[in-house]
Amino acid sequence: MYEGPRASLDLTHVLYDDSSLFSLGLALITLSPILLMASYAALAVQTREFLIIVMWAGQLFGELLNWLIKRAIKQDRPIQSIGNGYGFPSSHSQYMAYFASFLVLHLYFRHRFSSTGYAIIDFLWRLIVYSALLGWAGLVAYSRYYLGYHNAHQIFWGLTIGAGLGSLLYLLAEFLPNRFPRSALGRTKTIVLNHPILLWLQIRDGWAVWADGGREGEWLRWRKEWEARQKTRKTK
Prior knowledge:
Layout: H1 21-31, H2 34-47, H3 50-73, H4 91-109, H5 119-146, H6 152-179, H7 184-193, H8 196-201, H9 215-235
Helix pairs in contact: 1-5, 2-3, 3-4, 3-6, 4-5, 4-6, 6-7
């Protein structure tokens, strides 16, 4: 058995006021970004979507960028005893701002939501989705401030860097290549998608073909096959 010095893994270790349910709630919220990495992996394997893989790669790059900035600036946390490492910028804030900004831009510019037939309900649903994503990012950032892991300055720059990275990557990898397919970015994306390795892995850009990424078409194909099998069973 190893008996030397041990360190705490901050990924799932959060200190909070155990006499306050509000503090407990924020502690759970501050852990919620962990769910994203598992979600990226599951979606990338299941859907083989180019967009998901690019977004995931950008998320990982953001973590590396945060690690480099922290070790370059070496700014302490407001309460050193409750967190390991440096505090500037807030990695949780940067992480969530990247996720929210990239996804909101994609949903706004490229994704078509299913329509209810009522314009006002469709508008309100989109507004709820956008607000939920941005609100989640905001709550995570606030939890880092309330729990004492970062000060407002560190959180502000975490949010700024994350939102900037998410917006820039979406602009370069999705918006411009699809708006201007004959541009250098558009041709590069086409070459990447036609690479033999990506063809072998069956990577696709669903939103380049379907406004909803192919979700409705896949469901209709499933429904048609399911109904056909139900009829076959009834005739036996």
